[in-house]
Each structure stands twice: as structure tokens, then as C-alpha cells.
Amino acid sequence: MKYELVAGFETHVELQTNTKIFCSCTTKFGGDPNTHCCPVCIGLPGTLPKLNERVVEYAIMAGLATNCEIAEIAKMDRKNYCYPDLPKAYQISQYDKPLCEHGYIQLSNGRRIRILRIHIEEDAGKLIHNHGDTYVDYNRGGVPLIEIVTEPDFRSIDEAKEYVEKLQQIMRYIGVSDCRMQEGSMRCDVNISVRPEGSDKLGTRTEIKNMNSITNIAKAMEYEFERQTELIESGGEVVQETLRYDDATGTTSSMRSKEDAHDYRYFREPDLVTIAVPRDRVKEIQARLPELPEQKFARYTEEYGIPEKDAAQLTKYRSISEYFDKASEGLKSPKTASNFIIGQIFRRLVTEADKESFDIKTTAEQLNELCKLLESGKLKNNLAKTALDKMLDSGKPVTDFVSESDMAGLDDATLTEYCQNAIAAMPAAVADYKSGKEKALMAVLGNVMKQSRGRADAASVTAKLKELIG
Amino acid sequence: MVTREDIENIALLSKLFVDEKDLDSLTEEMQKIVAFADTINNVEVSTGEFDNINNLSNVFRADEVGESLPVEEILKNAPEQAEDHFLVRKRA
After folding, report:
1. What residue ranges of chain A are covered by domains with CATH 1.10.10?
2. What is the average pLDDT across A178-200?
3. Which residue of B has its CA nearest to A27?
4. ipTM summary value
5. pLDDT tens per residue, range B3-48
6. Are strands A144-150 and A3-14 parallel, antiparallel or unpaired?
7. Chain A contact for B75 (CB, 8 A cutoff)
């Protein structure tokens, strides 16, 4: 029998606010242990939380960017569990009135991954386990998170990978999170089950917790899919449990013992009042959202005729797409700018981090100037390429490397002179051409180009050579 | 109705040790507390949605960084500490 994978995601995204969700301690990553803490975020008795307004705003932005409905009334709840990463023994989260619900993310295969809800909550502290003892650092405790929960809509690992990449891209575009999985500012839990292909019943699911790279998510899902399929085929039953993925062995293992019953005893957080979101506030936030990657992609491919593969690269990071938008302003063909970016500029940006920060010396305005000279025919392609390399090295404008005479092109007398020189210098090639070897003319053309330092136009040189050789 | 099992379960979740001999009296006390909540539930409410006594919503704080406490202050009441961390010992 063939089995089908069914999966859903719960993704925690750390919000890039200046301060924690309920107190004014900084959210900066790192720092000496327990130095970003105050009585509120270490849960001392008698303290009161006060909600950071920007957390609500960022969560609404995230909801709008993923096609969610924004709640008119939301509230906070306590989720109770005893573990040293939570100083209060409860996490302030949202239970039955989350800020955002019923959204979706569109995948490239046409399927939609439905988003059940997005809610806000506080992050827990960091635990360092050492010989059975636990060292607790509460710097991360109280850092604002959004949790994005999908329906069990994934049917393949490729869909899961694309979803995580898209989510990362969207959150970075709207500027609510840097989504660095290796630093833990984005973490994924995957619910996974299998069922016979064609069945519409859900199988028993397991949950793989806290994965910190797309590669690991894919590997863990693959392992878990195989494990569950084999278990069912051999007559066994999948047990609902929480699993941890071990990167070193490539396997999953049970995380919680059964005695640790799940019972969070949620109840209303009495220290925080209702969050009301008037509709004009939603409209105002919507109006401030930047153009999303999907919309940019559509504009580049449909309006500009840029190939999909190139458009995907241009839209991957907001920094690149914004640079491209400026560099292509007013061009007859924005592709001119796109080709320079994806070719010559990308060659200098080796890693993904380099591409994301897009730290290059040439400004978008300078590239725009170069493109315009090229489009007007004043600058030949090869000269433009050489100039761009020099521009990228120095940060200076194109006019520093290309003179007026370069741009003026060659007058007929000079062109004739260069061609005559070349013919005289390369009698063998000329003889070959005369005997019917068309290609031999390329060598002569090269000689002319060299004399003109790239200013000559290949078509007019070829015509002139043919005329002179006869 | 609160049962002995409920008390045992709550104790387990709260990681509290409850002596077998206290279970009956605790069950009775908890029953009284829950009954009190029932009394509140039975009050007739005609004003519709009620949220809080001051009718407040949207009490927010601006996203501006303030002072955190020095690590010595943070760890002052910690039962145990090591290397500027709260220390939780392995339980036997």
C-alpha cells in the first residue's frame, strides 16, 4: 500500500521589537546571562505586566501579510506548566481569542496552506544542562513571539520547505523578525501523521519539537514518515507523543514521559485587559505594509518580462528587490538592471548572508545611470561591464571610468584607420577569410576592438572589414 | 464535584507533594472554593458583555528600552546560583 504524508506546522517567530512583551528590558540577542532582566520578567510577586504596543502592531502586520482576519477583540491567557524556563510557572499567551485567524500562504504548486491562527506570547528563558544540573538565563524570557499555526495541509516535504522559506521571506519583508533559525529567532514544531493514499481520515500524529534549520526539518520529516509507515505496515500503531530530532543520528526520540500529562489549565490573564482592534487601525496598518514578495514577483515577471528564475532571486530578500526597484527606475527594459545584479553583482556576493545584507559600494542610482547610458547606445555592452567592475571596486560613478570620447563612439575615419591597421597586422587571418573561412574574421575584429578599447560597435566593424577586404 | 483524584492530579501538575492523610480535607476545601465560584456564576447579569470593573481595554506601553537590574540584584533571592545563572540542582 502507498502511504501519504500529512503534516501541520507551528512556528515561533521572535519579534524584532526593542523591548520585551511585558516590560522595558531589551530584547538584544546574547548579552551576559541575566543582565536583560527585571522584576517583571523574572516573575517576582507583586509585579504587573504591561503590554508592548508594538507587539500587537507587528502581530497584526504578520496576520495581514498572510491573509488573516484580524480579531476585533483579543485577550491574553495563562498557560500553566512547571519548568525552570518559566519563572512564573505560567506563560502568558493567547488561548481562545488570538489576534489573527483564518489566513493562508500560497505555494508555487497552486496549493494553499491554511493558517489557523497567529497569537502573541512571551518566550521562555534559556536552559543550559550540565551534568544533570540546570543553569537558567532569563535574558530571553519575556521576548515577544508570535506563534503561527497551520492546518494539517502539507502533503510533501517540498511543500513544507517552501512554506518555511516563504514565511521567513514574508516576515523579513514586513520587518517584524529577522527569522534567523540558527539563532533561534524562528523555530518550527511539526505535527506529522501518515495515512493510506486516498484516505480522508487523519492518522495518529506525533509532534517533532523545536527544529532550527530547514535541512533538519526535511530530514526529521523524512525519518518520521518512514518510521510511521513501517510501524503501520508491520501491524503496529503510532503513539501520540512529542519527539525530539537528533541531528547527529538523524533519528527522532521521545521527549516527554507519559506521567507528564499535558494539562495547561488555561485561564484568562487577570493582570491584562482586553485588546480591542478598531477596523480603521487595521486599515491604517494595511496601508503601511510594504509590497510583498509575491506582488513584486508578479510585477517583475508580468510587467517587466523578467524570467521567473531571475525574479525569484531578485525578490528573495527585501534589500535586493529595493535596490533593483531603484536601479531600474525609468529604464526602457528593467531587465538591463536585473542582468547586472544577477550576473556581475551576485558574483561578488558569495553567501546567502552576503546577498541578504547586499552590502556593495555601488548605489542603486549609480547602477541606474550606467543602465541608462547603455540603453541610449552611448555605451557599448563590454565597456559597461568593465566600468561596473571598477564601480563596484571603488564606489565611484560610471563617469569616472568612461570618458566623453568613449561614449561618443568612433567616427568613420578612425574606424577605417583601425580596420586598415588590423588587416595589415593579420595577413594570415585575412587570407583564411578570403579562402572562405568566415570565422577567421573574428580575430581581425578582435584586433580592432582592442585598438578602440572597446568603444567600437561590433556590427559596424564587421561591415567595415568586409568592405575593405572586399 | 471535586474528587480525590482531582487533587492528586493538580498536585502532580503543580509539582507539589501532598500527604495521603491530607487528601480528604483538601478535597473538601477545594469543593468549597469551587462552590464559591458557582455562587458567582449564579448571579444574574443583565448588562451583557462584562470585561473588567474599570471598563478598560488597550492599556499599552511604548516600545522604549528602560533599565534592567544588575545581575547581582536579579540573583539576590535565588535559592542557588552559579556563574551568574540561576542553578537548578539535579533531583535524586
Report:
1. 412-469
2. 91
3. B65
4. 0.81
5. 999 999 888 888 889 999 999 999 999 999 888 888 877 877 766 6
6. antiparallel
7. yes
Q: Which three cell numbers stand for residue A353?
A: 548572508
Q: Nearest-CA neighbor of A149 among A161, A162, A167, A174?
A: A167
A199 touches chain B (CB under 8 A): no
**CATH 3.90.1420 assigned to A412-469:** no
A242 Cβ contact list (under 8 Å, min separation 6): A206, A207, A209, A254, A255, A256
pLDDT of residue A409: 65
Residue that has been written with the C-alpha cell 505586566 in this structure: A49
A51: which chain B residues are within 8 Å (Cβ-Cβ)?
59-61
d(CA A208, CA A224): 9
Q: Which CATH number fits domain B1-45: 1.20.1050.10, 3.40.50.1820, 3.30.1330.10, 1.10.20.60?
A: 1.10.20.60
The alpha-carbon gap from B25 to the nearest alpha carbon of chain A, in Å, equals: 23
Q: Considering only CA atoms, which of A316, A311, A412, A405 is closest in space to residue A358? A: A316
Q: With 80 as the cut, is the pLDDT of residue A453 above it?
A: no
CA distance A158 to A44: 46
- On whether the CB atoms of residues A462 and A441 are closer than 8 A, the answer is yes
Q: Where are the domains of chain B?
A: 1-45
- CB-based contact (8 Å) between B76 and chain A? no
Tell me the C-alpha distance between A204 and A384, whole Å: 61
Q: What is the dihedral of CA A450, A451, A452, A456, to 10 degrees?
A: -60
Sort A113 into a burial class: Cβ within 10 Å, 0-12 / 13-18 / 19+. buried
